[in-house]
Amino acid sequence: MAQILFYAMAVVALGSAVAMVTRKSPVASLLYMVTTLASLAVIFVLFEAHFLAAIQVIVYAGAIMVLFLFVIMLLNLGHDYRKDLKGGLAAVLSLGVSGALAGLLVSHFRASAPEPFAGRIRDSGILESLIAEKGAVGAMARPLYVDYVVAFEVTGILLLVAVVGALALAKRRV
Amino acid sequence: MQELSQTAFLVAATLKVLAVFAGVMGVVALLTLLERRIAAFIQDRLGPNRVGPFGILQPVADGLKNFLKEETMPATAAQPYFLLGPLLSLVPALVTFAVIPFASPLPTPWGVVDMIVADVPIGILYILALSSLAVYGVVMGGWASNNKYSFLGGLRASAQMVSYEVALGLSVVVVLIVAGNVTLTEMVWRQQQMGLWFAFPLSLAFILFVISAFAETNRLPFDMPEAESELVGGFHTEYSGMKYAMYPMAEYAHMLTSSALMATLFFGGWDIPFWRGDDAFRHEGIWIQGFDGEGSPVPAVLAWWKTILTFGSFAVKTSFFILLYMWVRWTVPRFRYDQIMQLGWKVLLPTALAYVMVVAVTVLSLDTVGVPYGFVWGAILTMVSALCTAVFLWVVDRGRILSGAAYGLRERYRIQARTLGREAVTPFGVGGSGTTA
Amino acid sequence: MPPKVKVVRRPEPERTSYLRATLKGMALTFRHLVNPNKVTIQYPEERPVLSPRWRGTHRMEVHADGRPKCVACGLCPTVCPANCIRLVGGEDDQGNRYPVVYEIDEFRCIFCGMCQEVCPVEAIHVGVDYENAEYTRDRFVYDLDRLMEQDHPTALLWDPSDPRSE
User: Fold this and answer.
1) CATH second-level architecture of A1-77?
2) Kind plus residue range of the DSSP H or E element containing C25
3) Which candidate from B133, B139, B162 shows the least CB-CB separation from A57?
4) Predicted ipTM beyond 0.90
5) CB proximity B45 to C under 8 Å
6) Considering the domain C58-148 in this protein, what is its CATH number?
7) pTM, to two decimals
8) Cβ atoms of residues A152 and B137 within 8 Å
9) Is B333 on the interface with C (CB under 8 A)?
10) Interval B355-378 mean pLDDT
């Protein structure tokens, strides 16, 4: 049952991703991207990563994509798409680069053994006990806020810098 | 009390899904009638009372009318998005009810069935995720109609919903700090353990949640997206027939879910107050009622009549909040769009953040001092929260946020008077400008 | 000459409490909610109380022997602002005038009551009646027989205590 659902969702995710990059209308692209994200969330649930699935939908599909939608609608983009399509040389180059990257990814995953860190976590049963004690979210909170809190705070400061930078760029000269 | 077998679980789950879905749809239909009746009663008239006894069959008549109406499709509308809008609005609204526990667990001969359609580990995050998705329906409806007024309505709706999701999430975070887990069953359990409903120790979070929920569901006073008197119908102007009917159905379903959430998060859900007999929680596989003096679990006594009583308690609390929604709708006028945005970002967000910090500090100090989780713990938190609520209401309630053009009027008159060299004649009285030329 | 200035004192926005105002409003709506006196009239069990001067569809008065009181003088079609009365007069063998054709098109009528005011023999009246729905449009042209058959009360255009009435 889970297998069938996984394959179905994988097909939906891949299909909508392909549809997203081939649409003419940007709103259609956006909606196909939301479909991709939603099917990815279902795949996360199949892997029992419920929290990640919820966060994916809340943050990515629910907030970031809505802001994209705002921009597209307000600026009425997507009517002169023909200017964005480059010629044949650009198509060949881009296909070549993406094919090389894909090949690199596949060979890397095929060659290396499963990550030792993840294997240690999985085998020692820490995850099960953490989840039983604190719930799925609590188990995720411990490494984030206790073990790697410095990295977390630095990421927050980075986001703050990005927000301030965006404000500075967008501020009108009064 | 044994666990359910695989087939028994599937059967129970199917029955629960059918019952909850039918229940939600039925309640949504009745809510349309209730809204009209309450609106009428507040306006000193009777509502629809002809169709059945007390107008009960009015929703049937309305549904039939919507099925039989001509479905318009504007020629210049973007067709697939036009059809997609109501779907994207209705489906998340209906599915959100799946994680809300509505009664105490029911003992059956095949095992104990807990009265929640899907007890997922993420609990309330599921609801937040689906309310984020509901924005798409409104925006799509507005944009696809190819109509200036609809587009404005849709845009305003999405901006408003996104802004208030932040405040909503933060007020929920406060509840999560105290409850310790995201699942709603755990929240009900912790309220039962504390002996206090979370509305008292977390009163400011309750107020913020209520305001944000009003804005999320696009109900007056945050009615700008529909704005019946300004934007014709707002984002659903061009819709008719069943496509239109899905939008109010989605709105009432959202209202129902928000009311159920308010009841669960802040008022104990299906808990009956002052009675320990209905407490129940699955703790390490067995159903317990609480912990006795030494900390060992006391097993729960589950019964079918307790299930019915607790469902009644849940229904009463949810109905109270639905009535609150309707009562406020017919009392206050609509906010302006800039007032809504100011309120969401400049008032609710900083308040929620500050409150999260205050509550976190209080909880940490209480736990460090060693106060056990119980009534005393809750009482101390209640006092801290009462202080915060009083400060919030005193500071924010002054006219600065909502006065609009009247803000700073006295100052402007004074400046004008000083410029013209005479006394300022203001609606607040004749004021001296200090020095006259 | 400087215009007269009237200063209206209003509460200052910086010191008003919107919560208090909202709660007062909610108390008001709650009082209306539980108020048992509603203004709705439950038609058709209850009927609205109409004034005796209410002008509705017409009625032709008859003599005791069933002849219409109308003498086909032609005043009402002349005075009617909407031209809704069609009158063809004739004489019977005794020399009395009577209406051969008398039709009122209720669709055109504006229910002003001037036909009743001007009638010298108090034959045509406007009546206190509003329940005259029909299934087809041509049923709204009332001919003489129909006008004589109506039995609803007629409008009281003159106050009986007014000495100039009658």
Assistant:
1) Up-down Bundle (1.20)
2) helix C18-34
3) B133
4) no
5) yes
6) 3.30.70.3270
7) 0.84
8) no
9) no
10) 90
